[in-house]
Amino acid sequence: MVQKLTPIREQTRAVVRSLLARTAFELFSAKGYDDTTVEEVAAAAGVSRRTLFNYFGTKEDLALSGLSEQGEMIAARFAERPVDEDPWESLRAAFNVLEEIEASPERRLEVITLLFGNESLRAGHAEKQARWQDLLTPLIEQRLQASDHRAFEARAVAATAITCLQVAFREWVRLGGQVDVFDLYDRALRAVRQSA
After folding, report:
1. Ordered DSSP codes for the chain
2. Distance of alpha carbon 186 from its chain centroid, rounded?
């Protein structure tokens, strides 16, 4: 089978997007999200404000740029799991995509701290993760027993798993990244499923 190649223009756009996001994050980390202007990000990246907005619609999009791609990667990983596997196990395996993103533990802690430390970014983060629910729900639904409520139940499973993941990352930040975030996720999920 011939693998479809990504056009150079798309590859270049992805690289530029990544570099702009990295430059922005470094400024956000150094100065704070609210105290960093879009003009400063553009200047640090060596591009015009207009060019920056060709890649990102808003400053918030710039800070949250990786979350949409992460959701797509999680959904793709879930879809690769065996169809007879318990959906909870498939979700746990799919979330491992987040551990495979190239970043040091310190850098990951810095990113998550920034996301949870700013009200606007927290809201944007929650909105992006709602999109993860939209991606995962139909995949989960296919694995549930047929019923009139299957779509509802699939959305509940996706929402619960994503909320447990979010709670685990918040606790991980609180603990300074000194524990395994997926041990925290497993603990959060056990707490929810045992109390049901």
Report:
1. -PPPPPPHHHHHHHHHHHHHHHHHHHHHHHH-STT--HHHHHHHHTS-HHHHHHH-SSHHHHHTHHHHHHHHHHHHHHHHS-TTS-HHHHHHHHHTHHHHSS--HHHHHHHHHHHHHSHHHHHHHHHHHHHHHHHHHHHHHTTSPP-TTHHHHHHHHHHHHHHHHHHHHHHHHHTTT-S-HHHHHHHHHHHHHHH-
2. 18
Tokens of 133: 């629910």
CB-based contact 135:79 (threshold 8 Å): no
| Tens digit of each residue's pLDDT (9 = 90 or more) over 83-133 | 999 999 999 999 999 888 767 778 888 888 888 888 888 888 888 889 999
* CA pair distance 129, 146, nearest whole angstrom: 26
> Structural domains in the chain?
8-58 (1.10.10.60), 64-195 (1.10.357.10)
Q: How far is CA 27 from the centre of its chain?
A: 20
Model-wide pTM > 0.85? no
